[in-house]
Amino acid sequence: MLATFKRELGAYFTSPVGYVFIAACMLISGFILHGLVLLRGSADLSPVFMLMFFVILIFVPVLTMRLMSEDKRQKVDQLLLTAPVSLTAIVVGKFLSAYAVFIMGVCVLPVYGIVLSFFTTVSWMTLWGNFAGIVLLGGIYVALGLFVSSLTENQMIAAIGSMFLNLVMFAFNPLANEVSKFVNDFFQFIPNALRSISVFDRYRQFTLGIFALPNILFFITGIAVFLFLTVRVLERRRWA
Amino acid sequence: MIEVQNLSKNYGSNKAVDDISFCAEEGEILGFLGPNGAGKSTTMNILTGYISSTSGRALIDGIDVLEDPIAAKRQIGYLPEYPPLYPDMTVDGYLKFVYNLKKCRLPRNSHLNEICDLVKISDVRSRAIRNLSKGYRQRVGLAQALVGNPGTLILDEPTVGLDPKQIIEIRSLIKKLGKNHTVIFSSHILPEIQAVCDRIVVINKGRIVANEKASTLAAGLSENASLRIRVEGSEIETKKLLGSIHQIKRVIPLRETEKGVFEYEIEPKKGEDVRREIFKKLSSRNYPLLMMKSNELTLEEVFLKLVTGDIYGNMKNKEEK
Asked: Which of A90, A208, B67, B316 is 20 to 30 Å from the Cα of A7, by its Cα?
């Protein structure tokens, strides 16, 4: 696990991908901070976290597209799968490497809080709640991207595929809103079910300052499910 | 030690490997010979646990690859057909990664230095793999297989893409490694297998067609070795002269190699040694014998014979073309 983690983390910074991701996170969150917080004279960072949802949705696939697909294309998977390590260790190592780069990217967000705290009082609990939310959200998107990457040999397909799935997961929310308008009370369980698996709904609760255990468990379960599916994909390829 | 028992692998209805069994003893170099698509790589991928078999078992030092894959993989160093390299890493970084991946416990620096010296890549250790030539990549791939000093080495066409000098180096390296490793080594370059291996398994269309000691395989199939001779003197006379030797079954004139010098193929009767008779007959006429060599089957011919059941038909077709 440590070997793949170190190797992939190193790869992010021998290529420009890691730097570009971190720089993009800083730049875009900086714009949002300027527009929605500083110009309004507000000290509430929640809008920044809220909008970062969409940034992450698009940028995380770029981070994960290479992880599995490139191994297959370069035939390095023959080394990994014939080494005396379990598939889970390989998958978790790769997940953690992309996750680490993601966390480096979003680490700039609490720094804004520190900067603001020189001029005004900052609600630290809300800020850390928000930060926990974005870290968990990133986890589920990184795991999903890793899973999609394991399905193809082509990086672009992996990136576009996981962006698409990220959008689908976001779309559960507007879909639920539309559905609830058209169904009678008896069928309200359908939009409710859609909302309960909507990443956006769960994440929004963090930005509203609600730090609820079910939401945390939702994200952790989601990460576990996608990692499990990735292991199954590798396993299935062996039996094909 | 490697044991393969009734191994089969189907891709749909296509049988890539069909019920093969063989065994490589401790410290033996086993050559795996077959045309492209015969199932060599598939067998090796099953042995290393990269893909599963449809039926049958593969045992590495008595450990079933499917039952306890991690313990079995610890015994194996594998060089696949395409060396599994990360082009963005340096050779040194890559070997350290492999060292960590295999959870190797030997002293790291001295172990890696030793391997790099052995496969002669010490001078490129700080270079990025993407900038290496094919020959160097192949050797980095071999170095990777040697990390952790596994008891069994599985090398899939390790000399492909190397220049002749490197091929000789790698061959002698494999011979050296064969002294304290079990080596399975595939190739379709026949003299190579002949030069390196103790035992040869010939595989065609997923089936084993021969599994014998390297020396017996060639000898057993070439008992009717023909002779090729060059004689200076009239072609018709020489043919008549040789035809009068009763141990000779057939004399086939081939061509004129120099002015007045003709080449013949002599097919003796089964089990007869006609070399002395030929010399005596020719010298009685004062026809100088300029060359005589035994047409022992090369492994290539052995191979064709095993695979097609008939070498001469095939060889002649080739010559006609």
From this structure: B67
Statement: residue B315 has pLDDT above 60:
no
Q: Do the Cβ atoms of B101 and A3 come closer than 8 Å?
A: yes
- Residues in chain B within 8 Å Cβ distance of A231: none
Chain A contact residues (CB < 8 Å to B): 2-4, 6-7, 10-11, 14-15, 74-86, 238-240
Torsions phi, psi of A152, nearest 5? -135, 165
Min Cα separation B127/chain A (Å) = 13
Contact present, A165 and A184 (Cβ < 8 Å): no
Full domain range(s) for residue A165: 2-239
Q: For chain B, which domains are there?
A: 2-220 (3.40.50.300), 223-295 (3.30.70.260)
In eight-state DSSP terms, residue A37 is I
Q: Do B111 and A20 touch, CB atoms closer than 8 A?
A: no
The tokens for B152 are 């069994």
- Least CB–CB distance from A84: residue in B52, B73, B85: B73
pLDDT at A66 over 60: yes
Give per-residue pLDDT as tens, B213-255. 877 776 655 555 678 889 988 888 888 888 888 888 888 888 8
* pLDDT tens-digit map of B177-187: 888 889 998 98
* Rounded Cα gap, residues A83 and A76, in angstroms: 11
Q: What is the pLDDT of residues B53-78, one digit of tens each?
A: 889 999 998 899 888 999 999 999 99
Task: Answer whether residue A197 shows pLDDT above 80.
Answer: yes
Residues of chain A neighbouring B78 (CB-CB closer than 8 A): 78-79, 82
Complex confidence, ipTM? 0.89
Domain count, chain A: 1
